[in-house]
Fold this sequence. Notes:
This protein has 4 helices and 24 strands. It is mostly beta strands. It has 2 domains: about 10-275, CATH 3.30.1330.80; about 280-375, Sandwich (Immunoglobulin-like).
Amino acid sequence: MMQKAGVDFWIANTITDLIQGDVKEHLPMEAIPLDGDVLGMGTTTSIDNGELSFLLNQSGNTTIWKCEAADAAIRALRPGDGSAHFPYVCFTGDASSLRVLLDPAELGEVLDKPLQAVVANAIELLKSQGRIEAAPIYGFRLELEWQCLVITVASKLCMGQQRRNSAVARSESSDGTAASSIYDLLQHYRLAPEDPAIASDPVRYLGNSLDWDCCGFFDTNPSSGRVTVPNPDAHLHLHGCSSDLRYGGHLHHEHPGSRLKAIKRFAIYPLQQLHRLSSDLAIEELQFTASVISFTVVNRGAMDVSDVGVAIVVDDCYSSHQYLRLPWLAAAASEQFELTLCLANGPHRLEVIADPEGEIIEQANQQCNNRAHLDLLL
């Protein structure tokens, strides 16, 4: 088998990060290349909830569709339209060079079979035939026909502040609990030939739009929570829109109310080059002159951050520290501050800390620059 050119796959935060409630990091839409066949999925902000579906358009490029939580309606996103910052998103470059098409007839009968099992069997078939290489994550574009389908749309992104709580205490609520219950917390919708008209049914009936255009990922290590919930059995995560462009969301293919009818198109993309995008806050240019402390808060990471706290501590006295808060700091941006401090003569230690509560997700090796100190003798 001929080695194909690599394609980068970027993950801005992870599903695990989203479940744990850390949604102060955002990737702007402008950072996502949409020329060519770009695979991806994501969520919008906690204020304007919804799912993101990356679908090919007629020009051969990619359009991001936002699926609304209120009614599962969809609209195409455009840069600058006010909802183009995403707390979770993953995306490739143009992956057309990796695309391998599988004739749906090779899958055999798929009626009523679990979609994840069908996809897993297809991966093994293509690997055994030498048509694809083994990869940590496989991307997919699928055209599916359903007998009935349940979808979910994000309506509560913060599933609990587990990261901060679990750092200091144990509780009955755990990462595993959050992962298993996440879909129970989201708005559910049903697509079927007709309304079952069951008054007690918590799943809202939408209509009979049963042909779906989908994009998603199969993670060989789902427990990592990179692109699926951190559950060892949750390999396949799929977003999409109905072919009539009426509805969209997360395809709850494992729900007992979802029954597959046929696969009309099956395209697979082995993804080898995985990268994480994150924030990286730093305190720089710390000085004290003529009773004025000055410093610069810099975002050296790839993601915008919101609601960032900054603490100014004198002589290790945290109970009387001063506190600033930045509503927004874009990637590669900085903001300079000056504060008057009345200090008595003698030795002093000044320390400035960005994100003292640890609310911003940063790689461990990038956290040391969150603080800076200055020793003085006045």
